[in-house]
Amino acid sequence: MIIAASTLAILVFSVCLLSQEITGAFGIKFGFSLDKLKVIETSETTDGKPLYMIDPPIKVRLLTEYYVMAAPISKRVYSVWGVDRGLEENECLTRLEAILKTLERKYKTRRKEAFSFFDTNYTISKGSVYVHVRCSNELTDYTLYVQYYNRPLMKQAKKEEIHLKSQQIDESGL
Q: What is the pTM assigned to this prediction?
């Protein structure tokens, strides 16, 4: 019994060592400088954060657009996205499933379904990084999103954002 338990422990430990950490996506590592990427255009997320369309070092056939989000002062990348628009529902769901299976195999982790009324959402987490994969109903078609987020770098970006906003406040009015 003790031998079986120790063999199981060694096996679990070995599998953990073999699984990869999520360090970035599409050839872009978290913490990489935005200034070193080829930015095609800049837009904003629905909550007003800058979103930079880029030409990534590595492209995935199932995705056509790539974006990053970076901290406002340090310009360090904390989120990397791959997107494909204008899909039929079944095509979007097929691509979503293919990407999820690949992520589960590569990172040796399981997906968790995220609740949504209109979209099909899943999240894969590994350490301080999570990947949000979803098919979003855009009324006339579907959009596939594969969004990688690094939690510690997101926190740093939020601190930088607060610092910038605090500098815009006129102290005399407070």
A: 0.85
Closest by CA position to 50, among listed 77, 30, 82: 77
Residue 132 tokens read as 């949000």
Angle (CA) 14 32 122, round 5°: 55
Per-residue tens of pLDDT for the chain, all 174 residues: 555 444 334 434 444 445 689 999 999 999 999 999 999 999 999 999 999 999 999 999 999 999 999 999 999 999 999 999 999 999 999 999 999 999 999 999 999 988 777 789 999 999 999 999 999 999 899 999 999 999 999 999 999 999 999 999 988 888
- Count of beta carbons in the 10 Å neighbourhood of residue 13: 10
- Per the structure block, which two tokens stand in for 55? 């030409």
DSSP H helices, the chain, are 2-18, 89-107, 151-167
CA–CA separation, 85 vs 82, rounded Å? Answer: 10
